Amino acid sequence: MRAALRQPQLIVGPEIGWLRLRPLSPCTFLSLVPGWLTDSFKWDQKTFPTQGDGAVAHSLYKMIFLTALPLFWIMISASRGGHWGAWMPSSISAFEGTCVSIPCRFDFPDELRPAVVHGVWYFNSPYPKNYPPVVFKSRTQVVHESFQGRSRLLGDLGLRNCTLLLSNLSPELGGKYYFRGDLGGYNQYTFSEHSVLDIINTPNIVVPPEVVAGTEVEVSCMVPDNCPELHPELSWLGHDGLGEPTVLGRLREDEGTWVQVSLLHFVPTREANGHRLGCQASFPNTTLQFEGYASLDVKCEPDPPVIVDVNSSVEAIEGSHVSLLCGADSNPPPLLTWMRDGTVLREAVAESLSLELEEVTPAEDGVYACLAENAYGQDNRTVGLSVMYAPWKPTVNGTVVAVEGETVSILCSTQSNPDPILTIFKEKQILATVIYENELQLELPAVTPEDDGEYWCVAENQYGQRATAFNLSVEFAPVILLESHCAAARDTVQCLCVVKSNPEPTVAFELPSRNVTVNETEREFVYSERSGLLLTSILTLRGQAQAPPRVICTSSNLYGTKSLELPFQGAHRLMWAKIGPVGAVVAFAILIAIVCYITQTRRKKNVTESPSFSAGDNPPVLFSSDFRISGAPEKYEVRLEPLQRGLYPGMSTPGGVHNGPRFNLALPSTSGLSERRLGSERRLLGLRGEPPELDLSYSHSDLGKRPTKDSYTLTEELAEYAEIRVK
């Protein structure tokens, strides 16, 4: 039978600090609270005055006490039993080298009624199957080596108090701690609730987020006080000239842990900006001392922001990294914003803010703005970013097809930084150019067929070069070129008609004498081939043994018609027209080789047959002819002798040019030759003397190579011959 609650005892001591109560009803507990609360407030007011400097401390204590009231009710209710459960602070801290008391209470169902209650504390894991390190075990006192001599149970498990004490703390003991209740048999339970222990080395100094010159501020130093064997003492460092500290005392936190608090009140000046203020926690009768520091950031009276640091204009090459920096001075700190064209790129509450641009492109070229603002005003600055890059591929806008005589305007444009040099070429000839311009316009006042062709627009600067090709097509009426003609070879007539035109014309051959017209569609007679603006058509007529007919070539397109009667030329010209320039060169080379071969063969043959050809008294006869001198019965022989060192006096070729081998015409000396015969000899040799009465047309001989033409072939043959005629 549950007895009524006796007067509760408040145990305020370093070892536990808990209310130890017998079971009571909530109504009974609430009826007892006012007297207890009154007594507590009386004790509180004696310790901490409600007026003056202690007013803040009094309010803080009152708030903590009222907050802890529901927690006491939970603890008292838990003592009545009912289900498995545990309570301990979720986190607790302690200085290295000291100790820590982790408060803990647990509960289990009343119907179990165990004779003996045991418990186990585990480190970092609640499950025995994971073999976590054992911190404390009431049955065997066997613990992990890390906790030997360091762990001790302060609570009474029979009273459902599982408070744990850890001493000689070191950093490796920081972590999670779990409690497991052991009531015997299968009545074992590991509670999910756990406490995280944090091992620290510095006091915690709390400075207000804003310290304004001329306005009183409160700086606090807080250290954990959870070791029942060692209690810290606080002192301030570097507080000279700032004011005298006020020690608030030992305070309990919401989860049952304890802290020591010391307050420092002072009125900062502008000169105190950056001052280093420290707090020291020491433990009596030990060498343990811990220090912490904080720097004062003293602001002046509230003022609008002023931008004091910003980039000047920036130039960067395409693909590089760019960093834009903006800094401002204000109180309170300003909101800094980087913007471009009204778009926010980055913003933050800070004294400086950078904007990082990775691998900049021409699209990021422009003006950037830095805006600084707070509740008291704003300021802004602009930064120009110029991205340098090579010209883009030029674009051509304008006329690409024109009629002869029209005016043509072609616009070539590009984009680059810096501006490029633009040039328009045609067949490596500069037609127009501009320097440091993005556009170039080419004007052709009256285009001609010669303006037709491929053009290039080239843009370049120090970062690169790009070019674009475009074609200008000039349309004009057909023009029949003068190289058009006809040629006959044996019984075949071929007519060549070369037409220059754009667009492609139609070509027809007209034979007026036969009243016949042949066009390109009749492939049996006409062959056509187009190359650029030239159209070559060849008409072939076979079986033309008689005189070749008249041929008229007519060409027309949508701009006009042109006709020309084709003149007849030698057959060899037709051949050159067929085979073209390259074929003509090859044929000519072959022809020269054949001629050289024939000549060399003949020379070798003559030398073989006449070894004394160049010397001797009686040179061989190369040509002979019988003639009679009137009045003389004898028969004479005319011989041609090669000259040793040139012609005889008085002998020359027409024009004074001596071509081919030279020969002397000689008459052999014969006994009884009359004076008339000697005169005839002089006449034949062209020597001075009386002219003989010979009926001789000429006696000059030049045995050079003379061409002979064969009307039935398309080649020229070279022959060596000489001729002497006597009339």
Automatic annotation (TrEMBL):
Residues 203-289, 304-386, 394-473 form the Ig-like domain. GO terms for biological process: cell adhesion. The chain crosses the membrane at residues 575-598. GO terms for molecular function: carbohydrate binding; lipid binding; sialic acid binding. It is found in: Cell membrane; Membrane raft. GO terms for cellular component: compact myelin; membrane raft; plasma membrane. InterPro entries: CD80_C2-set (IPR013162), Ig-like_dom (IPR007110), Ig-like_dom_sf (IPR036179), Ig-like_fold (IPR013783), Ig_sub (IPR003599), Ig_sub2 (IPR003598), SIGLEC (IPR051036). Its main location: membrane. Keywords: Cell adhesion, Cell membrane, Disulfide bond, Glycoprotein, Immunoglobulin domain, Lectin, Lipid-binding, Lipoprotein, Membrane, Palmitate, Phosphoprotein, Repeat, Signal, Transmembrane, Transmembrane helix, Ubl conjugation. It comes from the Eukaryota. It is a single-pass type I membrane protein. Belongs to the immunoglobulin superfamily. SIGLEC (sialic acid binding Ig-like lectin) family. This is Myelin-associated glycoprotein.
